[in-house]
Design goal:
This protein has 290 residues and is α+β, with helices and mostly antiparallel strands. α9 packs across α11 (234-246). The chain is globular. The longest helix has 22 residues, at 111-132. The mean pLDDT is 95. It has helices at 9-19, 30-41, 55-61, 69-78, 97-106, 111-132, 158-168, 187-190, 201-216, 225-228, 234-246, 269-276, 282-285; strands spanning 5-7, 28-29, 44-45, 64-65, 82-85, 90-93, 149-152, 155-157, 172-178, 181-186, 250-255, 262-265.
Length: 290
Amino acid sequence: MRSPIEVTAQTTRRFILGKQGLWPGRRWRGKSGTASAIEACEHLQLDPLVIVARSHDLMLHSRVTDYQPTFFDALAYDDRAFFDWGGWLAVRPMHELPYWRVLMERSRSLPGQRQVLRHHGAAVEEMRALLRDGGVVSGRQFKASERTAISSYRGRKDTSLALYHLWRVGEAMTHHRERFERIYAASEVVAPLHLLESVSASAADRFLARKQVAFAGIGRVGPLSSALERRVAKPEERAIEADLIDAGEIVPVQVEGWRSAQFVLASDVPMLRVVARGQVPKQWANVSVR
């Protein structure tokens, strides 16, 4: 392994914040800038709770000058530039979908999803048939008095749990939201057909391990078990990390005061060196137009 790039704690703070679009200040503007900000976040978390505003709107407001929630809605539900998915709900670029399709398929083997099929298989088949007709389906359209009642974080009716299951395993996607409630449609209605083809399992593992480093700015590929929706032992995690190093996709970094070496994307090394010189990368000073 090549000798790590040595960086100070201040350089590390600035670089990590800069990668996330938070240093030296807002550098994006308008709807197109909102798209750039979402890409920079790597995972834009969605949360149904509203304190001051929804979490994703707060994150984007801190990065985008003149941000409006309508920018996000248009990008996600009109332009289909992004999609949401996961037990830890987050938005990712639509072009990444073939990698996430591997995780969606793996979700079928999760205990919670197997339990849905075991106890509510008929409801799953019913919702699957409705989605197959090409329309949109909402859990709210089913009367509670006519459905099997359940007690779940995901809903109070068997239909809600069934729709969530189909979304979790990739048969459905979010078509749009009404008062933040997810409205479902079959995946082929929402996403371009060529993006519904999964990559290989190994390609998905490498991509998502690399994304772990990208999300951290400076960090490690692991822990990978939750990131890959499967059990990953330490030796395998180290092997994936070594493979990315050998391929020149990540580069070791030694941060002042940190015990172990971390990593940075090889493509980010030029920006890291600029920050280490006390300067601002030109990519971080540009402001996107509307």
